[in-house]
Amino acid sequence: MAKRVAIIGAGCSGLTAVKCCLDEGLSPTCFEKSDDLGGLWRYTEAVEDRRASLYNHVITNTSKEMMCYTDFPMPEDFPTYLHNSKVLEYLRLYAEHFRLLQYIQFKTEVCEVTKSPAYSKTGQWDVTTEKSGVKKECFDAVLVCNGHHVDPYLPLESFPGIQDFKGRYIHSRYYKKYEEYRGKTVLVVGIGNSAGDIAVEISGVAKQVYVSTRQGTWVLSRISHKGLPIDMSLSTRCNFWISSSLPAGLLHKLNAKQMNGWFDHANYGLQPEDMSKLKEPMVNDHFPSQILCGAIRMKPQIRRFSESSVVFEDGSIVDELDEVIFATGYSVSFPFLDESIVTVNDNNVTLYKNVFPPHHEKPTMAFIGLVQPLGSILSTSELQGLHSYLLCLKWKPTLRKQQNSE
Known about the structure:
Layout: E1 4-8, H1 12-23, E2 27-31, H2 64-67, H3 84-97, E3 104-105, E4 109-115, H4 119-122, E5 125-130, E6 134-139, E7 141-144, E8 151-152, E9 168-171, E10 185-189, H5 193-203, E11 208-212, E12 219-220, H6 230-234, H7 237-245, H8 248-259, E13 282-283, H9 287-292, E14 296-299, E15 302-305, E16 310-312, E17 317-318, E18 323-326, E19 330-331, E20 344-345, E21 348-349, E22 365-367, H10 377-394, H11 396-405
Parallel strand pairs: 1-2, 1-7, 2-3, 7-22, 9-18, 10-11, 10-18, 11-14, 12-13
Antiparallel strand pairs: 4-5, 5-6, 8-19, 15-16, 16-17, 20-21
Helix pairs in contact: 1-10, 10-11
């Protein structure tokens, strides 16, 4: 009898997890809380509870050739960089082509996942779900694919005076369209890809946009040398070999020189505070030009807010501030798991190979897509799904031996 696998979430990670299970003769059941697949890539006009949210004009930062699953190329008529609706279309085509929909239970929320009474012998899990009623089932393994863009991280205690601010402030999770910011003075807090996208969008209609950053970031164009997509130009075996061979100090200097090849980040107030950290860069073709045109003005860390203004660490003040958008990221959370199963410390989860909780007696639970790769999450999740099968359901002794040796 085929082993039963519970998969939580029908986004890009959950879909490839279902396919990996089917390829290996397993029996997957995917639970999706909403009424459709797509996860983060399914845009809705309103923000839905406990589901990732997109703003209307999201475009991928990864080219279609580097983004697709290995066994299902993007359609040739798709553009190189995709609007979010095209990514959703691709995921639908993928699910239909490999007949995955029959294994997905929509409008079904996973309420709790606990170890079965026989876990110490079998490694099985009890999964409690709710649809029209509450149901508990036993599975041989659980693949957690619920994503990490659901619970907004908004540390208001780090922004003194924000309670006195009379304007509106929101987390970027609740940002949808730029039209409502027309003619207003807006502050965007953060320097990730969402912050850059939102600032550029709003700057076309706002009176003025300010962006506050504590540490700066590298900014890349989607277009590289001779018109190649930037990820195809940078993500080569040669570049990876060089990166792994050079001393850290020299590598950081070469990286800084390459990143400043488009424009000098220091002149734009964007140079990273710690250039040794190779964090995810912002990919945005318009952000530097909007700074140059004055539509976006860079500001340092916030000192405090007042009723209608904000003071920054350099002493500068912005008066008559109307809106604040906190693009401060997300908190990792698993509301259906007890702390004894997985622990989140400082928004980090300790996982062996970024997949398995190392303290589990049996390696029959895996986390797919809980990474921030320098590239596509689709192909990364696909590799993690295969890795989960090999170690979770076939090579159990191998995992324990590897863990003990590290």
